[in-house]
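Exercise 4. Each item below gives a protein and its sequence. For each, produce the structure-token representation.

Item: Kelch-like family member 35 (Cyprinus carpio).
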Amino acid sequence: MGFSTNGELMDGRSKVSFCSGSCHAEHILQVLNSYRRSGTFTDVVLQVDGCEFPCHRATLCASSLYFRTMFSSSFQENQQPVVKLQGISSTAMDNLLDFMYEGRLKLDEENVESVFQAADQLDVPVLSRACVQFLQERVSHSNCLGLMDFASLYVLQPLQEQCQTLLYQDFQEVLQHDEFLGLPKARVLELLACERLQVTEEVLVTAALRWVHHRPDERKQELRELLERLRLPLLDPAFFTAALEADELVQECVELRPLLQEARMYRVFGREVQSERTKPRRCSGWAEVIFVIGGCDKNGFSRLSFTEKLNVSSGEWTSAAALPGYSKSEFAACELQNDIYVSGITMGVREWMKNYFNQMLN
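Answer:
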């Protein structure tokens, strides 16, 4: 331990001030912690999860607003030699006391959540923030579901939004991990109904089937409720056949037959079959649009080849492929399974005469 000195002369007398630096403070904290562990000079005992922790009230109050309020007010714990704490594990309390006494703590994936819970309950904000930062730096496809629920429980909005963004953008990767397979049914239903997932309906069907097949005996009865949340009519026909019609559990489920039949009818009759399951998911990349094809100018003379489309959800107009043969008119247009067919084009008199004489000459 080194000392720094600073001399000055006042009234003919020399005065020297010195500072031992941060090492002295660290030494004091380490000594206090050794006193805590040996029960020396302690004046209160914390009972946590069946374990007892002798402590110094002054140190607890200096580190935690919770204890400062408890020991400096009219609470009955102010005079009691033993204070019981609920909702904290003994391991987390031991870690928290190490931090209170020495200002340092090793966080890892195993202890960070329990340490945060203790720090949050006992109002040690500097440690709470350190735990949140630790978690934010380790959000991944394999843990974002659990961390999102954890962040929601403790109102940690930045962490929750970070997990949600990863989930919505990369759900296809998230469902490959064990955390998804261990979700309860209610959570899976919530995910399958989520409009913000940026995936195709085929990915969601794959997710539902993967979750069921992970524990088929206890989950096969949930098939109807799961697939009812999905847009089976909008599935690619080849995927529908390979994933659903060839799945043994799906074919055994009698309750699923109306849903499967609805999907088959939609493939035959298109938009004549209407239900909540025939409307595209908001973030699926599909959207209902209105096409305006061809027409003429405001004077009624010039034929227009323009094709414009209106996105019903966003209200945005954009250009589509131009209509070939812009001099034609009086055509009909219809839609079938997201394809537009144009037929019955009538040629103008001049063009008809031109084509007629060309055929005669040839």
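Check: The longest strand covers residues 4-10.
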